[in-house]
Amino acid sequence: MKSDTIGIVGGGQLARMLAMAAARLNFRIIILEPNPSCPAAQVANKHLVANYDDLDALDEFSRLCKIVTYEFENIPIQATHYLTTRLPVYPSPEALKISQDRLFEKCFFRNCGINTAHFYEINSQSDIEKKLADFTGKGIFKTRRMGYDGKGQYLYHSDESLEKIYSSLGNNPLIFEEFVPFKCEISIIAARSVNNLITYYDPIENTHDQGILKTSKVPANINSTTITAAYKAVEKILIALNYIGVLCVEFFITDDERLIANEMAPRVHNSGHWTEAACVVSQFEQHIRSISNLPLGKTSRHSDCIMHNIIGNEINTATEWLKHDSAFIHLYGKSEALPRRKMGHITQIFSLPKKF
């Protein structure tokens, strides 16, 4: 069984969609996930119910799998290092380590020659008061670790008081990023194979609501020069990390078409869910192909599209989309519709080019 089995650390909707794509290519999937009723458990061949840093579970996981990947960043880096002593882990723990810390990530982008917002390292309340004493304008305080979907953030304007900001974010190490005026946010999803081949999906234009991705539109409203520059920036990251698998990099685009790197995700990404409906080879299949040394697939799209996330109680009316001929719907099998929780997505496809 080991020769055809891929292990996934994590059991959420991304692991679910990876498992579904892997099954089409005749792979078996084992997930390591502490939640016994997670979305991926419904489609995986085997579910090891254990914490991510449970050494006995990691040993069993590595015995059963040929290769291992992961579906999200917030897993113990020590667990991935432990697994690499036993079998290949893609993407590498180095990519994971950088993506887990916003300060490391920004410094890494700068070292790759990629523009970022101006930022400050913050390790105390006194750091805030000293480094921002003369700051004017807007910015965002972010926890360096464990932040996603708008969590661990504080939007700041210079006419506010600086008092108690550090404690309001849990007294955790922070990064402060100066606000970047931008006309749109995009993401680039790319894949790199073990043979160093790189493919890119079309740039995606994203909108957010309270820090959570709401829609992803393809094509993005950017010019060809900006697209080329974005692809080159992502290529620098892939090569610097000797990266294997699918990577997503998010950028701000300024009014004068400058690229400002925001963050990266060393995995398949929410903004790439549209590839399930509008491409022959989805980001999920491309990731499986990448890490298992299969030929990379063609990434061109056959339709323009908009992907809509289904958030919280929106799940109650999601099936109304089934009345639309152009709608592709994917529900994640989550048992409870909590506020701000991603319950599924809908991709509305347009067979002919269309302006939005």
UniProtKB/TrEMBL annotation:
Transmembrane segments: none annotated. It comes from the Bacteria. Residues 106-292 form the ATP-grasp domain. Pfam families: ATP-grasp (PF02222), PurK_C (PF17769), RS_preATP-grasp-like (PF22660). SUPFAM superfamilies: Glutathione synthetase ATP-binding domain-like (SSF56059), PreATP-grasp domain (SSF52440), Rudiment single hybrid motif (SSF51246). InterPro entries: ATP-grasp, ATP-grasp_carboxylate-amine, ATP_grasp_subdomain_1, PreATP-grasp_dom_sf, PurK, PurK_C, PurT/PurK_preATP-grasp, Rudment_hybrid_motif. ATP binds at residues 102, 142, 147-153, 177-180, 185, 208, 262-263. PANTHER family: PHOSPHORIBOSYLAMINOIMIDAZOLE CARBOXYLASE (PTHR11609:SF5), PURINE BIOSYNTHESIS PROTEIN 6/7, PUR6/7 (PTHR11609). Belongs to the PurK/PurT family. Catalyzes the ATP-dependent conversion of 5-aminoimidazole ribonucleotide (AIR) and HCO(3)(-) to N5-carboxyaminoimidazole ribonucleotide (N5-CAIR). Catalyzes the ATP-dependent conversion of 5-aminoimidazole ribonucleotide (AIR) and HCO(3)- to N5-carboxyaminoimidazole ribonucleotide (N5-CAIR). NCBIfam families: PRK06019.1-1, PRK06019.1-2, PRK06019.1-5, purK. This is N5-carboxyaminoimidazole ribonucleotide synthase. It comes from Liberibacter crescens (strain BT-1). The gene is purK.
